Amino acid sequence: MTLGLTGKNILITGATRGIGAGITRAFAAAGSSVVGCYRSDDAAAAALAAELADTPGEHHFVRADVADPADVQVLVKTARERLGALDVVVNNAAAISHVPFAELELAEWNRVLTAGLTSAYLVTRAALPVLADGGSVVNIGSRVAVVGVPLRSHYAAAKAGLLGLTRTLAKELGGRRIRVNTVAPGAILTEEAAALPRERLARYEAMAALGRLGDPAEVAGVVVFLASGLSTYLTGQTLTVDGGM
Ligand SMILES: NC(=O)c1ccc[n+]([C@@H]2O[C@H](COP(=O)([O-])OP(=O)(O)OC[C@H]3O[C@@H](n4cnc5c(N)ncnc54)[C@H](OP(=O)(O)O)[C@@H]3O)[C@@H](O)[C@H]2O)c1
């Protein structure tokens, strides 16, 4: 059995930093071509493109806000023009903030729900006409969706919404052999997490059975598995990648 991802075309949102960059690197290493989007950090996008320059396949990074329907249309059009039909869509980009529920204004609720849940609707729906039969959609959720964490009601609601979207789309798209799954990370050591106070990182480490934070590559490995020929009878599921929290 092989991954079967050589020469496949992958669309990844939030592809240039953190977990998304890990996912981009993993698909590139598997021989796939990638169109990835980012919101504003041109330097991070250029650095990742340079890093992957000698890796087989094409790797293009497009500035596109997944919360903006017009940007999403341009993103999918660019992916089609650069790569042709898509085989995999990874809905990774999201927004987060930490606000007591009693102080959570509607604008902030809407911002986090739009970037974290509506974005998956926008990107998946726009990509559907160019997503090959037998393809795969992978949503990046969060362990927070099923356990709840104070100050993150909007984020948890967005991530919980992804679970219902995942199960339902799996049933709607199964007729085209398109599989839809979610990966729910725990605490992952991204560039942003590395800047958190040491005591907070130690608290997250202690919560995991493995006694450490996850690496973006360890989330990416599960995303690649879900997109690959190793998981062809797996759909509508959420795989939690949290080191045993
Ligand atoms: N990190 C964790 O511990 C953790 C835990 C559980 C779940 N997750 C989930 O994993 C995913 C990735 O998290 P992360 O911490 O790696 O993310 P992140 O560091 O906040 O974001 C990294 C990438 O997403 C892009 N991005 C952010 N908002 C965007 C938007 N509106 N449109 C397009 N691109 C956007 C960024 O572009 P710019 O650089 O240009 O801003 C960057 O490429 C998210 O869905 C998050 O909720 C993360």
Question: How does this model look, in words?
Answer:
The structure is a single chain. The chain has 245 residues and is α/β, with parallel strands linked by helices. It has one domain: 3-Layer(aba) Sandwich (Rossmann fold). It has helices spanning 18-29, 42-51, 69-83, 106-127, 144-147, 153-173, 191-194, 198-207, 216-227, and strands spanning 9-12, 33-38, 59-63, 86-91, 131-140, 179-185, 238-241. A seven-stranded parallel β-sheet has the order 3-2-1-4-5-6-7, sandwiched between helices. Helix 1 links the parallel strand 1 and strand 2 (33-38). It is globular and about 45 Å long. It starts with 8 loop residues before the first strand and ends with a strand. The model has no long low-confidence stretch (mean pLDDT 98). Residues 13-20, 37-41, 44, 65-67, 92-95, 115, 140, 142, 185, 187-188, 190, 192-193 line the site of NADP nicotinamide-adenine-dinucleotide phosphate.
